[in-house]
Amino acid sequence: MNHSTIQSQYNAWCSRQLEDQDLNQELAAIAADEKAISDRFYRDLEFGTGGLRGVIGAGTNRMNIYTVAKATQGYANYLNRQQGDGQVSVAIAHDSRIKSDLFAKTAAEVFAANGIRVYFYPELMPTPSLSFAVRYLHCNGGIVITASHNPSKYNGYKVYGPDGCQITTEAAKAILAEINAIDLFADVKKMDFDTAVKEGKISYIGDDVVSAYIAAVNTQRLCGDDIDKQVSITYTPLNGAGLKCVLRALKENGFTNISVVKEQEQPDGNFPTCPYPNPEIREAMALGIEYARKNGSDLLLATDPDCDRVGIAVKDGDDYTLLSGNEVGLLLLDYICSRRISLGKMPENPILVKTIVTMDLAKKIAEHYGVQVIDVLTGFKFIGEQIGLLEQKGEEDRYIFGFEESYGYLSGGFVRDKDAVNASLLICEMFAYYKTQGKSLLEVLNSLFEQYGYCLNTLHSYEFEGAEGFETMQGIMKSFRQEPPKEAAGRKIVSVEDYQEQVRTFSDGRQETIEGLPKSNVLKYWLEGGCSFVVRPSGTEPKLKIYMSVSGDDRSGAHKLEEMLTEELERRLK
């Protein structure tokens, strides 16, 4: 978009008395800042399978009531076209982020004005409870207002289909076409929220739906009273949406010795004690670790702001060690398989679904238990999609677990998204099960490495903010695609999987088609010795991500190889 077009967009916004006064103030404050104006108006906030995600503020490239309303109008048009003359309904949830409640009500007002029945959670709720409500209430779709684990300046808009999964690539394209045909000021229909409630166009989702969701979570337990459930657990919802549902699920299953981190207990979109509320990083877990130490807890549990992901720290001598999403996934996979077999609950031809960037060691564990592995693209919606395909064939019971390296887990088909409430229950149960046997989770994890071989998985993220950063990221992906490295860290690259072109190319020039996965801007390089790395731009943040999976004879050898690989790839990025 050229400078004059950007400036005219800015002027058009300035000429209006906007409903949200914060936007007027922001526009006035940047009047003399050409770069700030450009960053807000050089493009429309990108809509894709993850919906919208961006910085909160004024402009077409920001999260505000107008970009939310425009996206909702496009989604409403899409739903009404799909359904024809039938009654269309949606469910809406939101988390604790800044303006989440405002954006959720704005979306509800647009749906209601378009003749779409709205079921609205009156209080903040975990993202998986939205996926559950869509299916439980037989809705045609749903949205949740959240930016997951991003810093506080972000918010987002996740879109769900009637199957409770985040929308597919095809649906996203069709909705985007509807959105692009809309003028965000002239073409959006809205009606007053309270009026819509009085007229029955918006209904509040009741406690009966929440109870049904918790009951579904409870069906996934794999232990009874044969374990010590009075183990000390420290929990933090990181000022997000997890408190009510996580505590309820744990307490209903006998875990009552739970201490909550006071400063992070109540909803607060500013995240004052964890500016980056991501349970993957130690800074976000630091206060929880302090509490765990004071409480004498062997386990710290932390859910992200929309409670679809969970991270843990376990006592390790005088300190606490954070386990990665891959490591927790391996532990849960082994625990679920062994417990199901012990209880006689393992189905015939069981299935594990994981993403292509998730630890390859999972395949060895699955193979040991006779579990089939299905690999899917990054994004839990693709795991949910596989559950739906099994359901269509009447084989949903074959699905026993799905996980991704970014701390997302699900052990049942009652929702179609990662579920930190479900995962929190399983983790606490697994922790108590092994503690009752005198084992720590670290000891169990090390025994898995001894049995199946050591494997190190790491994720490196590189930020590329603004219009310039976006172009740089595209250039890097083009470079990796057109001039692929022949070797890395002294190891020959034996094959490259290009998921955008859907082709696998071997070092001798042979090619074969990658089948069964949609196109995606992802490259995976396989090295000699079973190591691999994946390069992909994030779909929700201005970041390029590199995932590494390094196998070694021991921990130190794997870490040394990973460091060499990281240094080499970072030189290429620069």
Could you name the ranges where pLDDT drops below 50 across 5 or more consecutive residues?
none
Binned strand content: 15-25%
- Average pLDDT over all residues: 94
- CATH-scheme architecture of the largest domain: 3-Layer(aba) Sandwich
Number of helices: 18
Helix amount: 40-55%
CATH homology superfamily of the largest domain: Alpha-D-Glucose-1,6-Bisphosphate, subunit A, domain 3
In whole angstroms, how far apart are the ends? 27 Å
> Any idea what the radius of gyration is?
24 Å
Count of β-strands: 23
CATH fold node name of the largest domain = Alpha-D-Glucose-1,6-Bisphosphate, Chain A, domain 3
Based on secondary structure, the structural category is: alpha/beta
Domain module count: 5
For this entry, give a set of tags.
single chain; 574 residues; alpha/beta; Alpha-D-Glucose-1,6-Bisphosphate, Chain A, domain 3; 8-stranded antiparallel β-sheet; 6-stranded mixed β-sheet; 40% helix
